[in-house]
């Protein structure tokens, strides 16, 4: 064991000397045996090494920007949205109805109410998927939507509110066009006008910060706008293509998902091949709309969620589909795997270090979810003892942690005046926005027993002693 530890330590020191951080996929592999807090240690002339393993958590983890989401017709500034966290959700969906303003300016009162409602979400510790619409159908003879020039004007009016509150907007459905803002049945023909669609998308991209996604209802629109699917190199660049995801409001609900996949060059098979590529780097969410056992059987549904990297799903509709999954026994698996589920397997770092020296750390984790964390999120190493020292781990991007096993090795330089004593070692993945950074409800929790510190949002891995 001592010889193995020395070899591992040598590798870590080599990485630290090269002054780089790296996260690499480890492949499926096998689970590392051993109970929680199993320690293997060895010493060299530089430090004492310890390797700890961690026990996975059995149940779901209420983590930001993922999971079953609740749906509502409007946001209310007076609602206590923390209730949704007690129900096991960090994510909600809401319409913003613009029915009364199809051909006139949005009044200040509407913008103020939306701003106040988004503030209530922030206080409640949740995020929202927003969709703006001018009607609630009916189908196929819908109430009117708005003409293009008024849609663009309304987006311009909404921009200050969206920019101010982007921290609690998980992502936006493209909306505005047609019945329910679902990009069909437009009384102004906008659902058949690709130039109008592009203009609306470009206006929305300008109205939101460049790190926020916009989800489209129909794969043919994505595939027509960008025939070549998004690549890993293009991902997270802030370009329009890198910001477009997919929402399916009739997920698994017929052979074509009620027209989602219209056939021909946009057949289900071709569209899913396209979507499976882009949803590695952009969100996929939606809801089922009718019972269809052929595609909703547990094994088939889970396979499709894996293929499309499914992040969020409406628990409010279709209720019978949800009940069927509960009866068939896969509801809990779907609940745990929507979005990301990060399980720490083991971590290796010194048992004692000198202040002013290097602190190398390596870990292995697996993502058991369907998708990766998708919005920007920094990663910090925390040493908490006589003082709290945080160091951002540059070059490690959790958005790249797709389903599978990952190995990360990095190193930080400790301050020369760091007080000696014992420190807890933790990894901290707070929200990317400063406004939410110190709210632990918006930090990612690993799906492990005994590591989560709820008051800080830290994942505590062990301890280290700092010596002079």
Describe the structure.
- The chain has 468 residues and is α/β, with parallel strands linked by helices.
- It folds into 2 domains: 2-56 and 349-467, no CATH class; 67-337, TIM Barrel.
- Helices cover 26% and strands 25% of the residues.
- It has 12 helices and 19 strands.
- It has helices at residues 2-17, 82-86, 108-124, 148-164, 194-207, 219-225, 268-278, 293-296, 298-307, 319-328, 331-337, 434-437; strands spanning 22-25, 39-43, 48-53, 67-72, 91-97, 127-133, 169-173, 214-216, 244-248, 284-286, 312-314, 342-354, 358-367, 380-384, 388-392, 404-413, 421-428, 452-453, 458-467.
- Helix 2 links the parallel strand 4 (67-72) and strand 5.
- Helix 3 packs across helix 4.
- The longest helix is centred in the N-terminal third of the chain and has 17 residues, at 108-124.
- It is globular, with a radius of gyration of 24 Å.
**Backbone shape:** globular
What is the β-strand count? 19
Q: Name the helicity range.
A: 25-40%
Can you tell me the residue ranges where pLDDT is under 50 for at least 5 consecutive residues?
A: 1-22, 27-46
Stated plainly, the CATH topology of the largest domain is called: TIM Barrel
**How many structural domains in the coordinates?**
2
Q: What is the average of the pLDDT values?
A: 92
Please state the structural category: alpha/beta
The CATH first-level class of the largest domain comes to: Alpha Beta
- Cα end-to-end separation: 28 Å
| Estimated share of beta-strand residues | 25-35%
């Amino acid at each position: 064991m001592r010889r193995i530890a020395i070899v591992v330590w040598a590798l870590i020191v080599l990485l630290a000397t090269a002054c780089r951080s790296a996260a690499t996929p480890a492949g499926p592999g096998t689970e590392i045996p051993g109970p929680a807090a199993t320690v293997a240690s060895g010493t060299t002339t530089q430090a004492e090494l310890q390797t700890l393993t961690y026990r996975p958590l059995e149940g779901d983890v209420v983590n930001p920007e993922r999971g079953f989401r609740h749906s509502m017709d409007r946001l209310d500034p007076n609602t206590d949205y923390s209730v949704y966290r007690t129900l096991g959700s960090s994510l909600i969906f809401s319409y913003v109805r613009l029915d009364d303003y199809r051909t006139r300016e949005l009044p200040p009162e509407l913008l103020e109410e939306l701003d106040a409602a988004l503030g209530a979400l922030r206080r409640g510790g949740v995020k929202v998927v927003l969709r703006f619409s001018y009607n609630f159908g009916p189908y196929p003879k819908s109430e009117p939507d708005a003409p293009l020039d008024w849609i663009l004007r309304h987006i311009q009016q909404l921009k200050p509110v969206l920019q101010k509150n982007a921290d609690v907007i998980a992502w936006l459905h493209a909306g505005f066009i047609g019945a329910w803002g679902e990009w069909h049945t437009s009384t102004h023909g906008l659902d058949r006008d690709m130039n109008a669609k592009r203009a609306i998308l470009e206006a929305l991209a300008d109205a939101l910060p460049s790190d926020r996604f916009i989800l489209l209802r129909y794969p043919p629109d994505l595939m027509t706008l960008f025939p070549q699917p998004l690549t890993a190199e293009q991902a997270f660049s802030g370009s329009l293509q890198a910001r477009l995801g997919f929402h399916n409001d009739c997920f698994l609900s017929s052979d074509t998902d009620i027209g989602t996949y219209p056939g021909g060059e946009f057949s289900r098979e071709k569209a899913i091949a396209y979507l499976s590529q882009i949803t590695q780097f952009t969100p996929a969410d939606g809801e089922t709309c009718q019972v269809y056992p052929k595609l909703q059987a547990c094994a088939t549904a889970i396979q499709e969620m894996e293929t499309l990297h499914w992040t969020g799903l409406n628990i409010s509709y279709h209720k019978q589909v949800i009940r069927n999954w509960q009866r068939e026994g896969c509801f809990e698996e779907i609940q745990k795997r929507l979005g990301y589920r990060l399980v720490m397997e083991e971590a290796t770092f010194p048992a004692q270090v000198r202040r002013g020296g290097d602190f190398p750390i390596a870990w292995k984790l697996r993502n058991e979810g369907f998708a990766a964390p998708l919005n920007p999120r920094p990663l910090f190493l925390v040493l908490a003892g006589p003082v709290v020292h945080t160091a951002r781990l540059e070059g490690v991007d959790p958005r790249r942690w797709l389903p599978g096993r990952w190995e990360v090795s990095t190193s930080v330089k400790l301050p020369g005046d760091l007080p000696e004593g014992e420190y807890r070692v933790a990894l901290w993945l707070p929200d990317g926005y400063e406004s939410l950074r110190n709210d632990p409800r918006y930090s990612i929790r690993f799906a492990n027993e005994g590591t989560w510190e709820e008051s800080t949002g830290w994942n505590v891995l062990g301890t280290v002693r700092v010596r002079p």
